[in-house]
Fold each of these.
Amino acid sequence: MTEPALKGLTETNALINFGDLPTHIDEMLQSGVALYRQDRAAADAMFRAALAADPSVLPTYFCLAKIHTYSGALDAALTAAEAGIAEAARQIGIGADFRAWSPADVANGADPNGATRFALYMIKALAFIHLRRNEPAEANAVLAQLARLGWLEAVGGHVVAELAGANG
């Protein structure tokens, strides 16, 4: 999944480049994106069906976290983000608790389509979700870990940090 694909979830009338996915999963994600504009419950169901079909496909977690964040279903967004981080960690071969990660654990995060980069973006998303849940201390703790890992700027975490500072 490329960086533009992360932003593309809100664009209209365009297919999203989720990266190299199994065709049936990509079709489900594309359908979910299209459904989101008209029927958020159906979009959620489509993304959940994609997740059930193949829980190793990381963009599905992103889609769920994003639609739930946008719609204000922040508990569901938090659950999706945490599950996405845990699945990415499994694929990387490190522990699920990102708070225990070291910079060496995420040293290969430069690959825009890799599990490490996905995990780092989802950590940033997690900070934003905590901020939206009015949990600034938790958001700042997540951002501090992202900074300790050396990836705050590279994944745009500074934007969330600025929001946290404005709201904190």
Note: DSSP finds eight helices and no strands in the chain.
Amino acid sequence: MLPLIAGNWKMHLLREDAIRLVSALRAQATSLACELLVCPPATVLADVAAHLAGSPIMVGGQDCHQAPFGPHTGDISAPMLRDAGASWVILGHSERRSDHHESDALVCAKAKAALAAGLKPVVCVGETQAEREAGQAERIVSIQLAHSLPDGFSGAVAYEPVWAIGSGRTPTETEIAGMHSLIREALQARFGAAGATIRILYGGSVKPENAESLLAIPEVSGALVGGASLKAESFLAIARAVPSNH
């Protein structure tokens, strides 16, 4: 399975800029040793999906509700994302967990809803700076994994140390390798052979300057990219940094 380079646009880009970005991506996204995924804001998701139709670039949402339909003002369900052209959805991002107080149980319910709607979830896990300094990083990530992934999970897991997101700081390669190894062991212990095929992405200040070294780390099977995904040049540079023999 090819590595996955996913772009989380967060709350950025209006329609004109979004179409300009994906036009540039579509024109240049050739001969890559990875798969590309863009996750735009819900307001432009359908336009982006329509513009990328027929291309190898996939489209995802940034969140979904756990119910398929209902009286949930302002929320978007997994079937709605699917209907708008999405095939993936990011769930449990640290900004959702902190800004909206999402629990592991809620993330698990959303992942279950996404799978039922035919979406592949990217479920995010990761520790805060305080948790890492207290020596609790592995325990926190293990708990998040155990309670955020539903039975029969397929898709991807993204390890995003909360303290590295948008800070320009990244853990050492040894720290990343250790956490990805722990995640792989947990996935295989729970899901058996299927756990060996679940991609584990690294997220947290991924940029062209560090992408090659990050993507060469054992068990790093892609990246969840934030700010650097808002420009075609930097996002494609990260994609091109994927080792050809990964």
Note: The CA atoms of residues 66 and 110 lie 4 Å apart.
Amino acid sequence: MSTSFLENFLITLTLYNILATAGISLYGIVTRPSVTKKIISLTILGDTFNVLAIFIGFRVFSVPPVLLDLDGSVEKLTTFATSAVDPLPQALVLTAIVIGLAVNLFLIFLALQMYRLYGTLDSRRIRELRG
């Protein structure tokens, strides 16, 4: 089961898009002075890494990781093990989504507190106000 030129092209294009999105979000985190834009860029970066983890666990010709036939023959188990998608990246991504949500809520809370204390979310202005 070899992959065609179109499938290789689409896989390569997807990988380049993931890397470009990660680069753009890192640029937003480093260069933007607004805390809100930094939080949005960090969220996009986390989602990009989740997509990359799913992309790593992807197989072109695969079946879901659910064994429906329980007769226990070695041949069926071997074909299932070689053709099933690895469920570990999917489970790790689900965990990362929940942790990312908690971190994003904490960062939003910190941004709200910074706005209450300093009246702005511009990191340069906050640095000047703190002295």
Note: The chain has one domain: 5-130.
